[in-house]
């Protein structure tokens, strides 16, 4: 570690914190990469040389200037809830933890401008006071930060109605560059494409403007169905029709719900389940529709108890994988898009081929205007070779996989404009210091 660099940082970090203690550095160098046994092997030894936790944007600018002058790699961190090593430094250097940039700058009807380190749960609470709510957020929203979600995430709770981040769910962002001198500017509209889900490779987001919608009274439901096919048909009806107001529509094949220990008193029968968040005024109509598909209610959370303690969404999206790993560390997962018009056929092919080696988990969402049965299937891990045999089978049958077992941006299959991102990085980060090693070369993309 360069002592002169630490001395320079100490002279400008007046309210923030510099972390050099080994165990704290190691902890703040990691995210939830261990969801993937492949990434666990690839990233286990990676860590920063030190951590800086700035207190304000002025300190962020000072850190970036010192890092640029000294040619020190910089990795930006929110809360470290990503699953692909987004916040793990590949080449040492400094991790800049933005968690203290956690203030609301401006909240009005229809939008909120907020510092990048604010936790989404805290932001949702403040929006609720004004009878508003966020459009989308990840299942990790109790810890996840706004900047981390925008830079490293894609969708989550709410995506069944409002789509993913790039579907108008980010209105603007203030970006800080690694140029000489450091620049700071606002991007919006089509310009945002180079900053959403780009892992902080094209610039540092210091604040973000998000849309807000009128607050609903949400009811959470757990429904058990007679067979996976009935569960799929019912949830498609809810997801597809604009008549239903919904925030979450999840399908979980047996025995996945049995992994959810906090729900063991209410999920007493093994079977296929739907987990929902729907408008309270449609509760009875939802139950009536479920009966048509041989479904029944086993548990509900009324609006007055929404987000008070553990909720239904805490078992959905990638929290499903977390509960599976708690039950058996051999589980891992995939991310894929099924084809709407043949997703049941695709699932039948997968089940016929792999049986209980692959368990079906679907999150219904919209992406660029299309309704998609998005898969987060659990896979029993035995080897990397076998895992990629499963991935190959999915891809050959049109259930395209966004590989969560790579730390390379876009190499997993997300429809990112990598050439545009690479060009923006050359402009905003000419010394290639931001999140080194995450932006793949064309050869790496072709090989993935």
Automatic annotation (TrEMBL):
<dbReference type="GO" id="GO:0004458">
    <property type="term" value="F:D-lactate dehydrogenase (cytochrome) activity"/>
</dbReference>
<dbReference type="Pfam" id="PF01565">
    <property type="entry name" value="FAD_binding_4"/>
</dbReference>
<keyword id="KW-0560">Oxidoreductase</keyword>
<protein>
    <submittedName>
        <fullName>FAD-linked oxidase</fullName>
    </submittedName>
</protein>
<keyword id="KW-0285">Flavoprotein</keyword>
<dbReference type="GO" id="GO:0008720">
    <property type="term" value="F:D-lactate dehydrogenase (NAD+) activity"/>
</dbReference>
<dbReference type="InterPro" id="IPR036318">
    <property type="entry name" value="FAD-bd_PCMH-like_sf"/>
</dbReference>
<dbReference type="InterPro" id="IPR016166">
    <property type="entry name" value="FAD-bd_PCMH"/>
</dbReference>
<dbReference type="GO" id="GO:1903457">
    <property type="term" value="P:lactate catabolic process"/>
</dbReference>
<feature type="domain" description="FAD-binding PCMH-type">
    <location>
        <begin position="43"/>
        <end position="215"/>
    </location>
</feature>
<dbReference type="InterPro" id="IPR006094">
    <property type="entry name" value="Oxid_FAD_bind_N"/>
</dbReference>
<dbReference type="GO" id="GO:0071949">
    <property type="term" value="F:FAD binding"/>
</dbReference>
<dbReference type="InterPro" id="IPR016169">
    <property type="entry name" value="FAD-bd_PCMH_sub2"/>
</dbReference>
